[in-house]
Design goal:
about 290 residues, alpha/beta, Rossmann fold, 2 domains, 11 strands, about 40% helix, binds NADP nicotinamide-adenine-dinucleotide phosphate
Length: about 290
């Protein structure tokens, strides 16, 4: 079997068109969705993520403003900036680019974001609502994985989804989303981690296997049953002297060998990555729609 390649970039482009329409309708009602982004310092990876978010917002018609604070800014100043964005009705979504520098508490900053404007959906109130199945913004990467599955014709409903990774931003919320008794979810979910015994025996039971481990090519072909759908969330830099930048990006699964056996697989890059950004835009548009009534 040769796997179908699930191109997140194409699905994200479809969603972008849908969001443009929704933004147009909001603007007709006098509401321009606004996204406020706080960036502390100039870490190159963070700068590139923030730039991608600003570009995506501009393409959809969302007003975006990035507040770049210096790397040595006191924590108090970060909190004040978040507070200012929370209070400003121009912004329907507020996010702080992670990771933060050591002297600024990530927990404190996330807790400071107004839950209504929390478009990353990391605030404990939203995490709790997600687990309880109450309406709330959904965290972007796991929500992107769900959309990717549904829109490519591999609905997780009734399927056994094995997720490798239990982080607060990917593994755990993805399990919470897919186990809900809801359309596009209702899956049987197994979560694996470094404490899991005999990982391959579990991954081989998956109808849908999600790799979110942060470990290059950790999922090998022998860990995948014929006909499985493999979603690779991992983004890892590996040295490559032939590449212009001296490195290339690989996922957490061994794409080349797994594609010979899986029913479908996402590439890295161009798979889950573009979905994360577009789901952030969706959360911002939804927050504006809530305000518009
Ligand atoms: P993380 O916080 O480092 O968590 C990794 C998880 O994988 C942990 O739960 C860890 O288990 C588990 N794990 C690691 N190696 C394992 C192994 N050999 N066997 C079984 N479990 C293993 O990472 P993350 O933030 O969730 O991110 C995961 C990957 O996704 C990274 O490559 C990251 O760059 C990428 N990512 C991509 C996007 C995107 O938009 N495409 C967004 C977010 C993250 P323990 O809990 O036992 O340590």
């Amino acid at each position: 079997m040769i796997a179908k390649i699930i191109r997140g970039s194409e699905i994200a482009a479809q969603i972008q068109e849908e969001l443009k329409e929704r933004v147009k309708k909001l603007k007709e009602r006098g509401v321009t969705p606004g996204l406020g982004v706080v960036l502390v310092g100039q870490d190159p990876a963070s700068v590139s993520y923030v730039t991608a978010k600003a570009k995506a917002a501009a393409e959809i018609g969302i007003y975006e403003e990035t507040i770049n604070l210096p790397a040595d800014v006191p924590e108090e100043e970060v909190l004040k900036t978040v507070d200012r964005l929370n209070r400003d009705p121009k912004f329907h979504g507020v996010l702080v680019q992670l990771p933060l520098l050591k002297h600024v508490s990530t927990e404190k900053v996330i807790n400071y974001i107004s839950p209504e404007k929390d478009v990353d959906a990391f605030h404990p109130v939203n995490v709790g609502k997600l687990l309880r199945g109450e309406p709330c913004p959904l965290p972007c990467t796991p929500h992107g994985v769900q959309e990717l599955l549904i829109r490519s014709g591999y609905s997780p409903e009734g399927k056994h989804v094995v997720i490798c990774g239990r982080s607060n931003i990917v593994g755990k919320p993805l399990a919470a989303i897919l186990m809900q008794k809801k359309k596009g979810a209702n899956a049987t979910v197994t979560i694996c981690h470094t404490g899991t015994k005999d990982l391959p025996s579990i991954t081989r039971q998956a109808d849908i296997l999600v790799a979110a481990m942060g470990s290059p090519k950790a999922i090998t072909a022998d860990m995948v049953r014929e006909g499985t759908v493999v979603i690779d969330v991992g983004v890892n830099r590996v040295e490559d002297p032939t590449a212009a930048r001296g490195f290339r990006l690989v996922g957490d699964s061994d794409f080349e060998t797994i594609k010979e056996k899986a029913a479908a697989i996402t590439p890295v890059p161009g798979g889950v990555g573009p979905m994360t950004v577009i789901m952030l835009m969706m959360n911002t548009v939804e927050a504006a729609e809530r305000v518009a009534g």
